[in-house]
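[09:14] KT: can someone run the structure on this one? pasting the chain below
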Amino acid sequence: MLRLIKWLVPLSTIGGIVLALPPLEHWWHMRRTPLFRTAKVQKGELISMVNATGTVTPVLIVRVGSMVSGPVTKVCVDYNSKVKKDGLLAEIDPTIYRAVRDRDAAMLSSAQADVSRINAQLQQALQDEERGRLMRDKRSISAEELLKLRTNSQMLQAQLAMAQSQIKQSEANLRNSERNLAYTEIRSPVEGVVIDKKIEEGQTMVAQFMAPDLFLVAKDLEQEIHIHTSIDEADVEQVRKAQKSNNPVHFTVDASPEELFEGKVYQIRLNPTTKENVVTYNVVVTTANPYMKLLPGMTAKLSIEVERRKNVLKVPNAALRFYPKAENVHEDDRKLLEVAEEAEATEDTDKTTDSRSATQRAADRQDSKLRHVWYADPTGRLRAIAITTGISDYKYTEVISGDLQLGQELVTGTKK
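[09:31] RB: done, structure tokens below
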């Protein structure tokens, strides 16, 4: 009996192990089978954007300076003051310039009086010359005396011409002194807002080779304002399309993060900036600013709408980025991984050595639109679907062609 029990115990253990092998094998298979994250193929609207960061800038900033020197006797505006065109901003002591104006006015009066005097003498000399000519005909005076009378009238004519030119010079001096006197009143050339002031009452202005900047006046802050942003050369053509199509530009600022502003691409300036071998272009976006929520210097986060397509088939970008492991892929599709790895290695080598021709670079760019997405078949193996992609946003990419169905589950990653 004891011997029988000794044999039954190991036999029952072995039998239990044999019976447990299928469940254990299934558990181990499920343990090794990866779980995939999936997302569905959808249909809807897709908007292609170019994102950038810019700075809010007035449409026009006028630097107002002084053309004359002297102590500042009055400052009529302060920061953020609204000014009209030709509005008074400040005054410089006009004492010296008024005295110069009065002196030039007196010199003009003197020159005009001198012309009147010489003109009277000339008329008298011309009359004397005429009488002398009559008397010469009667042989009453000599030829030498007649010549002296003629010479005297000619000299007076020359003096009259000099006096008249002196009047013109005096008038020019007077206009200059009057203009300098007018420059003692510093006025705004445009209607706008004073955004900077660099002078106070009592300071002395010294205008020498260049007119110093006293005020910065921003024009039309409430009517229109610009946003300047730098766009990489790779995106310039996309922005040009947006400008031609008059597509909207949406942006936010940190001061009002919950509010969405809208503008238009106003200008792509053809003056590139190169920094660390990166070429960028200045793009100007214009927008209205009726409530003065956009202030100069604010940072704007822009999204320039390039293209909008409705009712298109689209796949998650994560499905395009997913690259499976070979052991999870069906045997028929593993060759795609090998081809992709070889193409990636060749592309990296070409880019490093820069040996590709322009034609090849363009062809490679076109080929980059041919992509593969993956789905799990009933056996848990991954199968590939070739698609051609179109425009893309931050989350989805358009499918131009490919054997995809609406609602189909595509693999976007693996779960732990």
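[09:33] KT: thanks! The chain has four domains: 33-45+314-415, 50-59+221-309, 70-93+184-219, 95-183.
[09:34] RB: yep, looked fine to me
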